[in-house]
Write a structure and sequence with these properties.
This protein is mainly alpha-helical and about 750 residues long. The chain has 2 domains: about 10-50 and about 70-150 and about 195-555, no CATH class; about 575-740, no CATH class. It contains 32 helices and 5 strands. The chain is globular, with a radius of gyration of 28 Å.
Length: about 750
Amino acid sequence: MTDQSGNPLWRAVCVLWIVGFLLLFYSYPPDNNAQVTRSLLWLEAFTHLPSLFNPFDFSHTAADGIEFGWHLLPQRLPFVAAAAVVLATGWTVGTAAGQILGLARFCSPAERLVLSTGTGLSLQSLWTLAIGRVGWLNPWLLIAPGLLSVPFLTIGVLRSRRGTQNPSVSETVCLPDASPASVRLRVLLIALTVPFVLSILVNGVCPPFDFDVREYHLQGPKEWYQAGQITFLEHNVYTSFPFLSEMLSLNGMVLLNDWNDGALAGKQILACFQLLTTAAVFATGRRWFGTVPGLLAAVVYVSVPWTLRISLIAYAEGAVTFYLTAAVLCGSIAVSRPDGERSGILVLQTGFLAGSAMAAKYPGLVFVVVPVTAWFLLPGPRGFRHSLTAALICMAGVILAVGLWLERNREDTGNPVYPLLYSVFGGTDWSPELDARWKRAHSPDSHNPSDIPRYLAGVALGSDWTSGLLFALAVPTLLHLRRSSQMRRLWSMVAWMLITWWALTHRIDRFWIPVIPVLAILAGAAWSLFPNRRWQRFVLFTVLLGTLFNLQVWRTGLPGFQIGLMDLTAARRLTIRSDIQTINHDLSPDDRILMVGEAEVFDVRIPVAYNTVFDESLFEQWTADSGDNRRSSAERRLKQPRDILAELNRRHITHVYVNWLEILRYRRPGSYGYCDYVTPARFRQLVRSGVLSEPTVLLHGLWDDLPPSDRRVVSTWDGFEDLLTEAGFDGRRRWQPVRIYRVITAPDPVSGTESD
């Protein structure tokens, strides 16, 4: 079969595919997280066209009494400055390393920016882990690598200038531009990225509002900052994951000497990962397909609503996505020089970048390390031995990037990949019961092949935050598979990531985010499919139209809470739950709260003891009779009241907080499950025995407003009637899902009285 990409018939087929797919996409019902149809978004886009291109127009988030305006921009400066220091440190370290190794000779400026900054930020994260483990979290020590790199950077600049004067020394190797662009076209495509780039930058300091972020992405760094050392947190299993991006948030906390302010600086740093990914997408597209495809790919990627969403939420997927793209870029440079000087160093750096994806999140091993290493195992002109050597060098780079994280876990728990592979390595503070619950929660419900079309439709069409441009423009590039090794590599990565996402994960939508930049590169490459001006104008018009729609999605706030130019103090207040605000206001730093069912504790300013759903219940450990071995059982006996009081006093617990809404969420059918020992009857018994005071209710809810399935779950709890109240004047019953109890020997901060 010959390549058909130049055939007019195939061009018509591609046009029909793009038009048909986009019509389907814009009429397809999204996942309805916001209950907004795409047709309505189109209508609003054309209705408010003049304001659409204003990246600071976030009037939809306004509330009464909240200020907006340019005069509030200085509020962001401390956080932006701290983020700039960390980013500059990473760039300096990475650039100095690249110049020492001579890697700059093989890269364009955009490629050097991506590879140097990515390498440097990963090294900075490792440095933070190293000094944090020994308790040396000091601002000057944190940025010391950047300061020490300045002399090497200066020497490298001087050498490069001498090399420019002597062409025999300088050898910047890039592929010829297969698709040169006019100045007007370049300006247009760059201008299309501006509203999205500005939105990412201005919203980078958005206060944290997501559960996972406030449970561990920022909570872990907060606890380490408060302790002055990176230690094993047995109550939060998630903090034993590789934490590359979270270390950068810890940098912000140390530099600003405050965990709350430092978190905003950290979020700004992590938001910049999306800008670096955009640069990596452009650089890869330009190297393989030309300037216009590279710029188109950058526009497609930066406009995807997921890009803003990951910038607003400090998820690790932002770092994983960047390091995947950077590894693809570096690997493409390495494989283009199979017999060239220093190709081994390029392969090593590719492995380091791929390993950095794993250092950001365990799935990076499957999504990035495996396929990138496989690139070097492909048969080459120098034989299998050379390919195997390259793969081993790549793995050495992976170990350099992730080895310290694995060693930390081995030292803390005996298991280098804790809490994974418990059956192989075991693990301190883990058990067969917890391991079984973890696997059940993080594995697919089934592997029925008939489900694949439904999940693929969810990825390509159904996600609220995807872009129709990705699959619309990427799929036609399949025509070039036979003659383009680059296309084969990219499509093999797309196929690999989607297959492993379906087969090995619990199919949360954000887990497939790393495939987006690869699809964006392919979408940009669609420009080069046919050397025909009509085709290229059609592709350009398609990108313009899709970008217009994505702008509307961004400005409507669907990707998440955007602060724009909102007063930052008010924005922080809006993101803190009312019950947490009450705790912060009514209790003092001398108090300490035992949180039951609650792990989203980042915003709590009072000292807390808590555990995540996958850790042993502290409430059970501290109140259950040790002679009764029925662990996690609703029938297990309590200790004697005096023993419980003694235990709580020994741990300086003054209050016990219970969030039955969270416990309900975990106990729903198909959810993670929650310790059966925790029941309303326990707390009524502790009140009657004089351990706890009568509760203060922090949140009321209408009982009948709960879905029937939730009421059935609650009704199975021993003593659930204690959570219900008598019908009010409107005849409707209420329940009390969030309560706080005072330990009876502690003073009451609200009334100011002591217990009897």
